[in-house]
Amino acid sequence: MLKISKSIEYSIFALKQIYNNKNINLLIARDIAEKENIPTELVAKLLQKMKKNGILESVQGKLGGYRFAKNVEDITLYSVVEAIDEDIQVTECLCENATEEHCKRILSCSLRSPFNKLQNEIINLMKNLKLTEMFN
Question: What is the dihedral sign for C-alpha 53, 47, 86, 35?
Answer without folding.
Answer: negative
